[in-house]
TrEMBL record:
Disulphides: 168-174, 368-386, 556-568
Active site: 400 (proton acceptor 2), 400 (proton acceptor 1), 531 (proton donor 1), 531 (proton donor 2)
Any GO molecular function: metal ion binding
Biological process per Gene Ontology, one example term: proteolysis
Residues that bind Zn(2+) 1: 399, 403, 427
Cofactor: Zn(2+)
E.C. no: 3.4.-.-
Name of the protein in its database record: Angiotensin-converting enzyme
Glycosylation sites (chain numbering): 87, 124, 456
Comment on bound cofactor: Binds 1 zinc ion per subunit.
Residues engaged in binding Zn(2+) 2: 399, 403, 427
């Protein structure tokens, strides 16, 4: 290269970087002159020749500067979102929307800046991965800020409706979801009362969100397709998994797990019939959706007492133990912190205890759905949870703290890598300790259980595994279907007139449950689940429920803990903790297969893929027991997937293909009868 061209290139790089620096200062504060100068600088630098070939050193300098600015922007946005979610008002919503726009604007500018580096000239994989991440900005690539503002507003408004909703049991009693309606669905065994709580919640939440959702969908799609990189918003969500076969892969995993779920379903259905009466169960084989102990029938632990395999064995009641032992909310968090620190992971920093919201405030509206927050400054991490003194909440405390532990493990990575290896990894990390924590051995260790099933106590062991299945196996179809619904909506396959019909098709088909009261397309039951109005992807939980068993198996193996997988407790095992940390501290710096390999390597489950084998191994004794029991009682596994009881509406009567078919058959039959009658009469 001649001296002159080298000089020219150097000056061009300098002009470019200077341009970026100036442009990165808050543009609102810039004078007209600086705009002019900046414009000229950028114009000169970019019109020289496109794309600019900048060397790796320039990219590193750029990324360092980006890191500082992006972390700062993230902090500001998180503060605004925190203020809104811990005090829902018009002002806090407006402030959050304002910061959401500022953040989009920032991402837009930086993506443009980063696009001037010629990736084909950068050999360092790490630098090109980072630059690609700067450029992958999702909806922020859409230049119509009015529409972006509308998206943010709609999301805030939907979350607000969900969080402020009060479900009415009758004309005088209306209650919030947390803690009241959740408690009724968990503890009431009165069919009518359960129905009222179930319907009341959907009338107050989903039904009022319905009117906002179609516009939200169409704006998100318009924004995400603008660049031509993604087909629709679902396509963008799936891109976090960096795999073109992701959709088929999760489907295959789901199908492999279906027999376990079907066996659990058939057994629970038989036991619930004994309690509520066979007349409550349609001939299609579905279970009423509101009698499974959870508002969405996604976790069935709360009905353990009704369906325990060996009810004469003493049943565990951790909630009662918490109350009897005068547990406080803070103590629940200390117990979780103790678990993580026992395996050599982190303690919560002091700001966590100062700034978290751990109890539902009485004087203002908040978003009660639990979450864990990273304020991107390496020291401020918080949990927001309307914690109650129950076993379910104790597990959620561990779950949320698991997210914080992941944050702490990767806090020193570049900002762009401070994420889970994929979103399912973050959720999986959040849940993995629950597999150790819930073992009878561990419960006894911390004094929440006084006796554990001995070596030869098969019945006690089956009771325990069954209880685990009520949370981990019962969840699988729900974890899978929520985004099946959402992806179909974003693809345009499911139109607003059929939102609810599609939802119930999936719920009936995959979960084998049916709505206890008539539903129609005037209802919007997906909107009664937080993650739909909240715009939070859900397939991550399905991925998590598969991966956490893979990791549990790997950790128990490297820690050399003997015995069956379902009785392994990694508490106080720093070898297991170190292996887990090795994966966590990678953040999203490498494709997730490498993170999977990091944790499973050298064990019999070594892989860079998702696998259901460890989950099936964990539940193996129970699967055999369920199969035998279902055979003994001649239970027919499954349900009629073509028929979803109780979904009726004027629309479905005239519009759905299924009903069109029925209508066609009936019309033909009546025509044939008319002909036959007229022949006979003549
Ligand atoms: C998981 C485990 C047991 C039972 C059920 C589940 C699924 C799911 C549910 O349906 O309840 N669990 C949650 O929603 C727990 C909340 C959370 O920790 O997953 C939370 C959800 C959230 C809330 C606001 C915005 C985005 C997501 N996730 C996080 O706080 C989070 C997610 C990714 C990284 C870091 C934190
Ligand atoms: Zn989570």
């Amino acid at each position: 290269m001649s001296k002159i061209t080298r000089m020219l290139r150097l000056t061009r790089s300098a002009i470019f970087l200077l341009g970026i620096r100036i442009y990165n200062t808050d543009s609102a504060k810039m004078s007209m002159w600086s705009h002019l100068i900046l414009g000229t600088l950028l114009l000169v630098s970019t019109s020289w020749s496109q794309p600019l070939v900048l060397d790796e050193a320039a990219a590193i300098t750029y990324l360092e500067e980006y890191d500082r600015l992006a972390a700062d922007m993230s902090y500001q946005y998180a503060e605004a979102a925190w203020k809104y979610e811990t005090n829902i008002t018009e002002e806090t919503l407006a402030n959050m929307t304002e910061w959401s726009l500022k953040r989009s604007d920032f991402n837009y500018r930086e993506a443009k800046n980063a696009s001037r580096f010629d990736l084909s000239k950068i050999n360092n994989q790490n630098i090109s991965r980072l630059l690609r991440k700067v450029m992958d900005i999702g909806t922020a690539a859409f230049p119509d800020t009015v529409k972006l503002e509308k998206i943010s507003d709609l999301e805030g408004e939907m979350t607000s409706i969900y969080s402020r909703a009060r479900g009415c049991l009758n004309t005088t009693t209306c209650l919030p979801l947390e803690p009241d309606l959740v408690d009724i669905i968990a503890n009431s065994r009165n069919y009518a009362e359960l129905t009222a709580a179930w319907k009341g919640w959907r009338d107050a939440s989903g039904r009022n969100i319905k009117k906002l959702y179609p516009e939200y969908v169409s704006l998100l799609n318009e924004a995400i397709t603008f660049e031509g990189k993604y087909k629709d918003m679902g396509d963008y969500y799936r891109s976090s998994y960096e795999s073109p076969t992701f959709e088929n892969d999760v489907k295959a995993l789901f199908l492999e797990l279906a027999p376990l779920y079907e066996n659990l379903h058939a057994y629970v259905r038989r036991r619930l019939k004994e309690h509520y009466g066979a007349d409550k169960f349609p001939s299609t084989g579905h279970i009423p959706a509101h009698i499974l102990g959870n508002m969405w029938a996604q976790d069935w632990t709360n009905i353990y007492d009704l369906v325990a395999p060996y009810p004469d064995k003493r049943t565990v009641d951790i909630t009662k133990a918490l109350i009897d032992q005068n547990y406080t909310i803070i103590r629940m968090y200390k117990v979780a912190e103790d678990f993580f620190s026992s395996i050599g992971l982190y303690k919560m920093p002091h700001l966590f205890w100062e700034k978290s919201l751990l109890v539902k405030p009485v004087n203002r509206e908040v978003v009660c759905h639990a979450s864990a927050w990273d304020f991107s400054n390496k020291r401020d991490f918080r949990i927001k949870q309307c914690t109650a003194l129950t076993e379910e909440h104790l597990l959620t405390v561990h779950h949320e703290m698991g997210h914080i532990i992941y944050y702490l493990a990767y806090k020193d990575l570049p900002y762009l890598y401070r994420e889970g290896a994929n979103p399912g990894f973050h959720e999986g990390m959040a849940d993995i300790v629950t597999l150790s924590f819930q073992t009878p051995e561990h419960m006894k260790k911390i004094g929440l259980l006084d006796a554990i099933p001995g070596q030869n106590d098969t019945e006690g062991d089956i009771n325990f595994l069954f209880r685990m299945a009520l949370s981990k196996a019962a969840f699988l179809p729900f974890g899978y279907l929520v985004d099946q619904w959402r992806w179909s909506v974003f693809r345009g396959e499911t139109k607003p007139e059929r939102y609810n019909e599609k939802w119930w098709d999936l719920r009936c088909d995959f979960q084998g449950i049916y709505p206890p009261v008539e539903r129609s397309n005037a209802d919007f039951d997906p909107g009664a689940k937080y993650h739909i109005p909240g715009g939070t992807p859900y397939i991550s939980y399905f991925v998590s429920f598969v991966a956490q068993f893979q990791w549990h198996k790997a950790l128990c193996k490297v820690a050399n803990i003997a015995g069956p997988l379902h009785r392994c407790d990694i508490y106080s095992n720093t070898i297991a903790g170190a292996r887990l940390n090795d994966m966590l501290k990678m953040g999203s710096s490498r494709p997730w297969g490498e993170a999977m390999l990091k944790i499973t390597s050298g064990t019999s489950g070594q892989t860079d893929k998702l696998s259901v084998a460890p989950l099936l191994e964990y539940f193996d004794p129970l699967i055999k027991w369920l199969q035998e029991n279902n055979k003994k009682y001649n239970e027919i596994l499954g349900w009629d997937k073509k028929n979803c009881p109780n979904f009726l509406s004027p629309h479905i009567l005239s519009g759905s293909p299924r009903v069109q078919n029925i209508t066609f058959i009936l019309t033909m039959m009546s025509a044939l009868f008319s002909i036959a009658i007229s022949i006979i009469e003549n």
